Every structure is written in C-alpha cells, then in structure tokens.
C-alpha cells in the first residue's frame, strides 16, 4: 500500500498542476471496504498529461509509478474533470 501510494502521490506532484503552483494541493483518501482497501489521490489535474502506464526500460530514471500500480494493485483507474484528477487503486487481502 505505501509503495503504491507514494508512487501515485509523487506522480500527482510531478505531473499535475498541483505541483506547478506554490499553493498546489494533493488530497489522499483511504477507505476500507470489507476485504479491500481503496486509496484515492486527487490533484488539480493537468492540461498536458493524463495518467498512462508505460513499460520502463532498465536504463530509465523514472516511469515506474503507474507500471507498479498496474502490476501490484487488484484494480486501478483514473477520472478527470474540469476541477482536477483522481487516480485510485484497490488492494485486497491476500493469504
């Protein structure tokens, strides 16, 4: 959970308007739902980028955030509107 949350928050700061302004805001909400936990990271959105998974090469300095989310989360997605964007992911209980 902490690794994925760190990656998504880092992406919000690096790639959204929240990280481009001194008063930028990123909100984290974590919800437990029966056997799963859902994390949502909301930012100011971006007019230039949208969340997308890419496969990093061994030489890349970055680009692993959503790749890790896609690899490790049970489900994930994003939604965007004129007020900002949210990336969410769910993790289930694993034996």
TrEMBL record:
Q: Which UniProt keywords apply?
A: ATP-binding, Kinase, Nucleotide-binding, Serine/threonine-protein kinase, Transferase
Q: Which positions fall inside the Histidine kinase/HSP90-like ATPase domain?
A: 3-90
Stored InterPro entries: Anti-sigma-factor_SerPK, HATPase_C_sf, HATPase_dom
Name a GO molecular-function annotation. protein serine/threonine kinase activity
Query: Would you tell me the protein name for this molecule?
Result: ATP-binding protein
